[in-house]
Amino acid sequence: MWAWTLWMLPLLCRFGLADLPAKPENISCVFYYTKNFTCTWSPEKEANSISYTVRRTLCYVRENDTCNSTSKAGSSCSFYSSLTPPDIYIIQVEAKNAYGIIKSDITYWDLTTITKIEPPKISSVKPVLGLKQMVQIKWTQPVLAPKSSTLNYTLRFRAVNSTHWMEVNFTRSGKNEEEAYNLTGLQAFTEYVVALQCVVHKSRFWSGWSQEKMGVTVEEAPHGLDLWRVLRSDKVDGKRPVQLLLKKAKGAPVLEKVLGYKIQYFPENNSNLTETMNTTNQQPELYLGNQTYWVHVSSYNSLGESPEATLRIPAIDEKLFHCIEAMRTCLTQDQLVVEWQSSALEVDTWMVEWVPDLDSKPLAISWESVSHARNWTIQQDELEPFWCYNISVYPMLQNRVGEPYSIQAYVKEGVPSEGPETKVENIGVRTVTITWKEIPKRHRNGFINNYTIFYQAEDGKEFSKTVNSSILQYDLESLTRKTSYTVQVMASTSAGGINGTGINFKTLSISVFEIFLVTSLVGGGLLILIILTVVYGIKKPNKLKHLCWPDVPNPAESSIATWCGDDFKGKLNLKEFDDSVNREDGILKPCYSPNDFIDKLVVNFENFLEVVSTENPGKGCENILGGEKNEYVASPNRPYCPTVSTEIPPRGPQCLSSGMLEGICPETRERLLPPTQGCGPDHLCEEGAPNPYLKNSVTTREFLVSEKLPEQIHREV
């Protein structure tokens, strides 16, 4: 029984102690001069509600007071009664909850070592006239600092464009409300930021930092310059323009405010022609002759001038030396590195020049001198991404400038902003030419590595062809005749590609060559036919003439007008025409006539005129030439020829005198005058127009007489 009780007793004690509050530890006290006395401890927070009592006891007189707090208010408590150093206090903290009270260890606090005061207030930071590289800081002591106490100060400072702070420590007696400190070792004409904090002597608690204040050191006379030039090819009034580029020497601090630049230049062979120009422009232009010139430039301010920078401008016809053999660029993690190789070991100074390569007006040229090295490095964030830069390196041997070597570079490449502008030319049956323009430089965003042509027939498979960046046109072949196609061109950089606008075209159904071939064959055939015809006409001109221009008998040369009566019958060989007209099944068969048959039927117009004009001159002329209504005139060689009225209505029948045909065989008469109804016994009627042969003869005319003549004309032969 006793053994079981002894075994359970530690467990009961443990459960009882677990309900008590945690013992306050890590007690720290600060004496905020003339304000309060504050103590803090841990733990800072408790799960249960706990009340704290801080008991403060003065060591020498054993006076004590208390300060109460709760766990909800935090683990701190402040005494607001006035205290004066160098008293020593005993501090003990009690924690109490529903299960009991627990006390902290006793701690001792000397007010001299725990006093904390407010930060000082800086009134001004100004340079001292006549003293370089120095500023004077003035401030006011804290109002609640202990009187006649020694104060330790820490002054920190940095340049405005720097993030690195530097500190200076010093001590002041604290008797004066206004204090000052001269900060030396600074750079001239540089703006600085300063701040102060202080602590009571022997105290371990520093005040906070004062509000920051800025000041500028006194400027100095200008330092050296870096000088470069840009030679222009065009001339103005016979002189070549040269643009000078001025900037602070590399590595030289900006210790002054430059008021202007003094430029002196003269021909190399005549220094008496020196010209001087003052300017505030850092890129002034000079107009020089064709010979070599020397240029001297210095900057100045109110304190003096900088050392001169000298540059030699070569003559316009001077041959530059060449020593750079190759150059390349590479990108590191955050830098662009340019390296070059040179065959001239004596050249150890180089001028690097870089400028953005854009379609717009060229921007300002940047440049930098490099010595004792054959590479140049620049931070990537100093260059624009997706911009192409032209980088040139000039070798410099003493005062001479050699021939530059140039290269292009991007610090970062991207996909082009727009695709190529595409056109279709020379559309054929199975071929077409695709042309495109280069993407503007500002939209390339990188080096164009290649172009890819995508083309696809309507409802067909897509094909592609890739060419290098120097090609701006491509001939597509093996296309389908009379087919619609869609084509577009993609431009690609190392970061990716982008397509241009798609265009449509349709191949031809027949090519120009095929049209030319057919035309050539037809034209060639006609030409050969013409040549053969000409050759045939040369060899056999009569046959060709008879074929093209058949002989037409001249009625004026006919002798039928001299025939009359039986003589006319005798001269006609009618037997030759017996079998000329044969009718079979109502069809008229051809009748063969003698060779002079037509001539015998033609009236000899000239003989007739002679007879008429002889026997009846006046009347003949009247009958032939005048009158509205006329009749045919009988032949003068016939003893008796009855007249036949020849007044013929349009397209009416034509009647011929029977006397003219009485000697002609019936078959022949039937051929000459087909039978018609309504004609008298002495006349034959023919429907339709007169004989076309007679009507179309050049010299054939119908002889007409007036209706006023007698019905018949009798005359003797």
Automatic annotation (TrEMBL):
Fibronectin type-III domain residues: 23-118, 119-221, 416-510
Gene3D superfamilies: Immunoglobulins (2.60.40.10)
Primary location class: membrane
SMART domains, alphabetized: FN3
Regions that span the bilayer: 515-538
Presence of keyword Transmembrane: yes
Signal peptide start-end: 1-18
Membrane topology of the entry: Single-pass type I membrane protein
Keyword Membrane on entry: yes
Subcellular location: Membrane
Record keywords, A-Z: Glycoprotein, Membrane, Receptor, Repeat, Signal, Transmembrane, Transmembrane helix
GO terms of biological process kind: cell differentiation; immune system process
Gene Ontology cellular component list: presynaptic membrane
SUPFAM superfamilies per UniProt: Fibronectin type III (SSF49265)
Domain of life of the native organism: Eukaryota
Family the entry assigns: Belongs to the type I cytokine receptor family. Type 2 subfamily.
Protein name per UniProt: Interleukin-31 receptor subunit alpha
Species: Bos indicus (Zebu)
